[in-house]
Amino acid sequence: MKFLKELATAPPTAWFGMIVILVYVIVAVFADIIAPFSETEVVGDLYLEWDQTYWLGTDQLGRDVLSRLIYGARNTVGIALATTILSFLLGGTLGLIAATLGGWIDQILSRIVDVIMAIPQLIFALLLLTVFAGRAPDINLGFTSIAGASLTLILVIAFLDSTRVYRLARAVAMNIVVMDFVEAAKLRGEGLGWIIRKELLPNSMAPLVAEFGLRFCFVFLLIAGLSFLGLGVQPPTADWGSMVKESATLISYGDITPLIPAGAIALLTVAVNFVVDWMLHRSSGLKD
Amino acid sequence: MPKQAMYKRGDDNGMWPILKMVTQRLALGVVTLFVVSVLIFSSVEFLPGDIATEILGQAATPETVAQFRKDVGLDKPPVERYFSWLAGIAQGDFGKSLANQRPISELISSRLWNTLFLASMAALIAVPLAVLFGVLAALYRGSFLDRSINVMTLTTISFPEFFVAYILIMIFAVNLGVFPSISNIGPETPFWDRVYRSVLPSLTLTLVVMAHMMRMTRAAIINLLASPYIEMARLKGITRSQIIIKHALPNALAPIINVIALNMAFLVVGVVLVEVVFVYPGLGQLLVDSVAKRDITVVQASSLIFAGTYVLLNLLADVLSILTNPRLLHPR
User: Fold this and answer.
1) Are the C-beta atoms of A227 and B162 separated by less than 8 Å?
2) Domain spans, chain A
3) With left for phi above 0 and alpha for psi between -120 and 50, is residue B227 left, alpha or beta?
4) Among A237, B154, B233, B323, which residue's Cβ finds the most Cβ atoms within 10 Å?
């Protein structure tokens, strides 16, 4: 009930954001049902015009652009989401551990993070992708399978991005660790895992959730950028960044096809940013 | 907090606090550069084989591999190789490209100049605009101007660089036909022609960076206007313009300069994608091509240049924000 009341006070921008996110989720989950053709099926001639069968035409191999766009929602957003979750698991856990234990563990972890953050993320990602290219196997998780190239991408970006999460989680937890209830828990002999799960995590949830949205946008844009450069998600996986790259030459002929997947990326990031902006606004109590 | 207080009192160890802080930052910067170079160098050591097996392929005989390793100097211990790599770079020798055996410095020099040209052009457009709009948004907080700037910046921050680039191409190159969509410039291109061909890429960069710069400038000024001495000045009845010129601006300079330097660092990296979209012959394009070819020595060299520039600009931001802080400049 309280949640619904909060929702009612959301500004129009936040509403817009939430509706867009919902639409993306539906498209991603039900891609199989919504898409008129399959992800990799060659359905017609190359570069067909927009018509009734192929609403957005066909691409350079004769695959239906609309279908690839719909499957792209699943792949592109899925990969970015997996990366962000992994980044939060890694960075968040280490950050909370560093804050709780302090001492040399904190020192070592923090200095490592400092060094990694001294190198621009895109450049470091390019370096690591060069080194690890073609080393990850394709894996099958039962409900979905991940291509080797995508797996490398997820691991590399999650590793690099976890440094940002580490910083925030540590900073937030530092303020909680000094509280009396944590002291009390330590004195009664609770273990590290218990303190993190029962004391730190519930109290640092709000800023971490907002950060999750921001990190997702960042990771999403980074992965889209890498895929656009041809160094991220590899064909034949339908992915928005690669779709822009593949159809980029069409723009010189006044064809807006490359703008559609690019716009899909932009729209989702705008939506998430609007929602996060509202959440931050609300939690900080600012009324300006 | 006690650390801060110590700096403010200053004279207790016979040294100007500001000088001490700047030296500390510079020392830290040198250490960072060193560690970054170690990291970039050693990333290759993570390869399961090494560069030799990587290039010659699985089919190569052990003799050829051994010979190749000797030629490239891979048979020496890593520490020795690192220092000779570093010594070479200090003299402008980055080694040879694995893909075509050309000296890397030859590949890099003209491209580095092109990249710096593009970045400076974008900076020249972005900085004045961003600071102006940031300050205006802060001064007229909550007004229509502020709110529209807020929505606009939030939107452009969310756009991938290539989306902005293609929209600009669509408008200015395809529909209006005023600027070229491909920036093919060479060493012989005359200056103004070079500027003309770089308009779209630098405009893209401007749009991408400006949003960050504007938001940060706005936040810095708002933070400042909330401080007690501004309220005091207002209560004394000083005019609005006087408050801003005499009281706010000197104190706002530090955060604004900081924001600009940080964004220059951001810009240097943002160049990579934009260069690829516009086929601009810069360092970013070289880096991307080399990653695709797995030409690891070129990747290392260009990563080092990008990372080095990034570290130096961050350092500059740090030092400038100390140097422009009125409280540190006039210690009591």
Assistant:
1) no
2) 68-240
3) beta
4) A237
- pLDDT band, very low/low/confident/very high, at A138 (cuts 50, 70, 90): confident
Confidence at A285, pLDDT banded by 50, 70, 90: low
Among B40, B44, B162, beta carbon nearest to A262: B162
Which residue of chain A has the CA closest to B147?
A288
Q: Which amino acid makes up residue B199?
A: V
CA distances from A260 to A44, A58, A60, B222 (A): 20, 13, 15, 38
Cβ <8 Å between A262 and B160: yes
Which residue of B115, B146, B163 is the best one to mutate when testing the A interface, meaning the one whose CB has the most A CBs within 10 A?
Answer: B163
Residue A58 φ/ψ, nearest 5 degrees: -120, 160
Query: Please, which residues have CB within 8 angstroms of residue A15's CB and are 6 or more apart in sequence?
Result: none
Which two structure tokens, joined as six digits, stand for B43?
């990333």
- Residue type at position A134: G
B111-283+318-329 is classed CATH 1.10.8.60: no
The three-state secondary structure class of B238 is coil
If we measure between CA atoms, which residue out of A164, A174, A172 comes closest to residue A87?
Answer: A164
β-pairing, A145-146 with A139-140? antiparallel
Look up tokens 């030296």; give the residue. Answer: B23
For the stretch B304-325, pLDDT in tens is 999 998 888 888 888 887 887 7
Q: What is the pLDDT of residues A35-47, one digit of tens each?
A: 778 777 777 777 7
Cα B194 to chain center, whole Å? 22
How far out from the chain centre does Cα B242 lie?
Answer: 35
Cα separation, A89 vs B298, whole angstroms: 34
**Which phi and psi angles does A279 have, rounded to 5°?**
-60, -45
Q: Which residues contact A104 (CB under 8 A, 6 or more apart)?
A: none
Over range A160-180, report the average pLDDT: 91
Q: How far is CA B182 from CA A226, B111, B112, B200, B291, in A?
A: 21, 16, 18, 9, 22
Domains of chain B: which residue ranges? 111-283+318-329
Here the tokens at position B22 are 């700047």
Q: Tell me how close the Cα of A277 comes to any Cα of chain B, in angstroms.
A: 9
CA distance linking residue A286 with residue B222, whole number of Å: 13
pLDDT in tens, B180-224: 888 777 777 788 888 888 889 999 999 888 888 888 888 888 888
Least confident of A134-138, B122-126, B152-156: A134-138
Does the A68-240 domain belong in CATH 1.10.3720.10? yes
Instruction: Taking residues B143-163, report their average pLDDT.
Output: 85
